[in-house]
Amino acid sequence: MKTTPEHDERIAKLTFASVYPHYVAKVEKKGRTKEELHLVIKWLTHFDDIKIQELIDTKVTFESFFKQAILNPNAELIKGVICGYRIEEIENELTKQVRYLDKLVDELAKGKKMEKILRKN
Q1: Domain 5-116: which CATH class?
Q2: Which alpha helices (H) appear in the chain, and where do they start and end?
Q3: Residue 84: which residues within 8 A CB-CB, separation 6 or more?
Q4: How does DSSP classify residue 111?
Q5: Are the C-beta atoms of residues 114 and 36 closer than 8 Å to each other?
Q6: Which of 1, 27, 70, 82 could be bridged to 46 by S-S, CB 3.0 to 4.6 A?
Q7: Which one Pfam family would you cite for this protein (predicted)?
């Protein structure tokens, strides 16, 4: 399934602060913690807790969020379907990065072991 330019633009303009509470609620509802969520975000982006809070407070867009991130080289190992899109087939780089984060949050909420989520052998 190919994303449209409108879809990609909508994702780029979405603020991290608007989605973050949904991430927290999703993982906590399934018995995981905010700390585990932060571990997943740190693994993908190299942001520490202070930086994550700063990005929330300043209401950065996902476009700005990922421009500031140092993406984990193993992020390309994140595969599968999220929100109806096969991650490895998404052509827009920013949309793919946002879906990487969505997939990691989804795996955390589904109870997957942290070693597998963080793509450790």
Answers
A1: mainly alpha
A2: 5-13, 16-29, 34-45, 49-57, 62-68, 93-109, 114-117
A3: 1
A4: T
A5: yes
A6: 70
A7: DUF2200
pLDDT over 90 percentage in the chain: 91
Pair of tokens at residue 65: 């969020």
CA-CA distance, 34 to 47, in Å (whole number)?
Answer: 15
Instruction: Report the DSSP beta bridge partners of residue 15.
Output: 61
Contacts 24+ apart (CB under 8 A), 85-90: 85/1, 85/3, 86/1, 89/1, 89/2, 90/3
CB 10 within 8 A of CB 61: no
pLDDT in tens, 70-95: 999 999 999 999 988 899 999 999 99
CA distances from 95 to 25, 36, 52, 75 (A): 22, 23, 19, 13
- pLDDT on residue 120: 84
C-beta separation of 46 from 69 below 8 A: yes
Containing H/E element for 70? none
